[in-house]
Amino acid sequence: MSSITFRRFGDELNSFVGKSVSVVTADGKEYAGTLTGVDEDLSVILDHLSGAGDNVFKMAINGSNVREIRLTAKPYDFKALGERLNRSFPGLVQVREDIGVIIVMDKIKVTDKGVEGTGLAADKARTIYDEYVRENKK
Q: Which CATH class is domain 3-71?
């Protein structure tokens, strides 16, 4: 596998961290939770588990036992939000899906967690973000 392909695979897999996933093991057991860590061998750490028993709060699964890791939460649509921001800030919006961020005017950072920045432009971006989130929760 080329180093570029391997890096893209790693970047894509790292984008699952912090999101709801389902992990299927080699013996067919399935665990659902929040992926809090993953390494190059596909060893994973899950938090907020379901399907692992009442007294299990966090679990590490060895990569040799992992058959599948499924993203169960809908991915955040950075392109759609970026297009909406671009209507108010034409030509000043950079969508960086690879790192999960939208940059507005080279100083305002928009992620799936919210808007970082101060001033009138940040307030406008925050209003657009809040409206977008409200519409997509329906």
A: mainly beta
